[in-house]
Design brief:
The protein has 225 residues and is α/β, with parallel strands linked by helices. It folds into two domains: 146 residues, HAD superfamily/HAD-like (Rossmann fold); 67 residues. The chain has a six-stranded parallel beta sheet with strand order 3-2-1-4-5-6, with helices on both faces. Helix 6 links the parallel strand 2 and strand 3. Helix 1 packs across helix 4. 40% of the residues are buried. The model has no long low-confidence stretch (mean pLDDT 91). GO terms for molecular function: hydrolase activity.
Length: 225
């Protein structure tokens, strides 16, 4: 049976904003500056994971070199400095995609493992802060009992948008996000980013795309009329 798209949900970091590149830069600069015993590649393994998971992994990796609280404080301070200087850059084509879908009347949700204040601040610091209002619903870490990779965030998004998960098109870039969306039963698109997605997990998604323009083309073909 041909899929039918009735609504769209987007992840934030790595799909809407190119924030993961800047967050990684802050991560790398900190471990080099402080000569910490952490592999830079660890960042890729943590992309998309809920806070309680990546905090535990970081704490174990730090050992006695630095307290977790100090590491997070320094990391976030560097991140905020970079964001303040450079803003929150959109992924290529993401702003146009959001505007186009909204103009067509497509119900939109933002589904992120980030906290709501950070999500609002990313849009406020972006070149098009007005696009935040295009999302009918915003599902953040605070809004769920079980964050990604649990399917709850996308099930909540589908319910809020008034569609069946099978009719919700999701764009994700990280392994936890792809697992959450596919387990929820959504039409899942993978936009490859920092997260390392296994072939088995990729096979569960509907398609892998390379650019946001492909989302509009798929909606033109499979969107409900």
């Amino acid at each position: 049976m041909k899929p039918v798209i009735k609504a769209v949900a987007l992840d934030k970091d790595g799909v809407v904003f190119d924030t993961e590149r800047l967050i990684y830069r802050a991560f790398r600069e900190l471990i080099v500056r402080e000569r910490l015993p952490i592999r830079p590649e660890l960042f890729e393994e943590l992309v998309g994971k809920p806070p309680q998971v990546y905090l535990q992994v970081l704490n174990e990796a730090l050992g006695q070199a630095m307290s977790l609280d100090d590491f997070i404080a320094h990391w976030f301070a560097l991140r905020d400095e970079i964001f303040a200087n450079e803003g929150a850059p959109f992924m290529p084509g993401a702003d146009a995609l959001i505007a186009s879908l909204h103009a067509r009347g497509v119900p939109l949700a933002l589904v992120t493992g980030d906290f709501r204040p950070f999500s609002e601040r990313d849009f406020a610091r972006s070149s098009r802060p007005e696009l935040f209002a295009c999302f009918a619903h915003v599902i953040t870490y605070e809004d769920v009992t079980q964050p990604k990779p649990d399917p709850e965030p996308y099930r909540r998004a589908a319910e809020a948008l008034g569609v069946d998960p099978a009719n919700l098109l999701v764009v994700e870039d990280s392994p936890p996000g792809v697992e959450a969306a596919t387990t929820a039963g959504c039409l899942t698109l993978i936009l490859p980013g920092y997260g390392m997605i296994s072939p088995d997990l990729a096979a569960r998604a509907w398609r892998t795309i390379r650019h946001h323009d492909e989302v509009l083309r798929l909606f033109d073909e499979y969107g409900s009329r």
